[in-house]
């Protein structure tokens, strides 16, 4: 199971979601990010229920590869890797 982290927020339970993949941290495209996706990320981080799902680089511009795009969770998954997502190398998403 791949690791995730939240960066740029007040603590490890708040911030831009990043995924460890292929030996480096990369971002998750926020174009379709919603509360169901946030609920799964918060669960995976051990942070309890999601409070909000912010987009538009609310926690600062990401850097590095964009590993996931169009994440679509049902909200019941144990990790983001259990959700449907398009691989982030399609070029459809850009850091803002």
From TrEMBL:
SRCR domain mapped to chain residues: 4-96
Gene3D superfamilies attached to this UniProt entry: SRCR-like domain
Signal sequence extent: none
Protein name, per record: C163A protein
Alphabetically ordered keywords of this record: Disulfide bond, Repeat, Signal
Pfam families, A to Z: SRCR (PF00530)
PROSITE patterns, sorted: SRCR_1, SRCR_2
GO cellular component: membrane
SUPFAM superfamilies associated with the record: SRCR-like (SSF56487)
Disulfide bonds: 29-93, 73-83
Native organism: Mionectes macconnelli (McConnell's flycatcher)
């Amino acid at each position: 199971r791949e690791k995730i982290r939240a960066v740029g927020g007040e603590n490890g339970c708040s911030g831009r979601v990043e995924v460890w993949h292929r030996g480096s941290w990369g971002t998750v495209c926020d174009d379709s990010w919603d509360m169901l996706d946030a609920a799964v990320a918060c669960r995976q981080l051990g942070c309890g229920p999601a409070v909000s799902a912010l987009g538009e680089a609310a926690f600062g511009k990401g850097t590095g590869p964009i590993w996931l795009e169009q994440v679509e969770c049902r909200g019941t998954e144990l990790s983001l890797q259990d959700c449907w997502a398009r691989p982030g190398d399609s070029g459809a998403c850009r850091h803002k």
